[in-house]
Amino acid sequence: MVQVGEKAPDFELLDTTLKKRSLSEFLAKGRFVVLAFFPGAFTEVCTREMCTFRDRMAKLESLDAEVIGISVDSPFVLRVFKEVNRLNFTLLSDYNREVIEKYGVVMPDLLGLGLKRLAKRAVFIIDPKGVVVYKWVSEDPRVEPDYNEVERVLEKLKKEQTAK
Q1: Catalytic annotation, residues
Q2: Which residue in 100, 109, 146, 148 has its CB near the most CB atoms, within 10 A?
């Protein structure tokens, strides 16, 4: 599993318009990247999580952060999920499950339901140099991240960056 202080593994995934997007592309903007892995579109907790990020986007953008949601759903499902929920950030499809492997966030079986190899609910914050500066991973897909903590971490990082 990727640890704080390590270089974040780069990747290339399809977005909801079938365009290939890479982590290095987002980092090139000089902003913090918040990778929000989630198990599945249109599930209750995942919808609530992605909509919470949507509703906090103005604050996150003011902290020089860009949110990227990643699940193993197809780009077609993610496109509809994004439209239905009016999500204002990028969603990427890890349908081949390569990125969840790289980041060590593979959920072997969702709640014993036989749904195999989905993404664990996880949040990684990556600084503009590509280093993981925050990591939160849940073993329980029903648990959402602490959104206030994500904002506090970004506030601290932005303050440190401004002081340099």
Answers
A1: 46
A2: 100
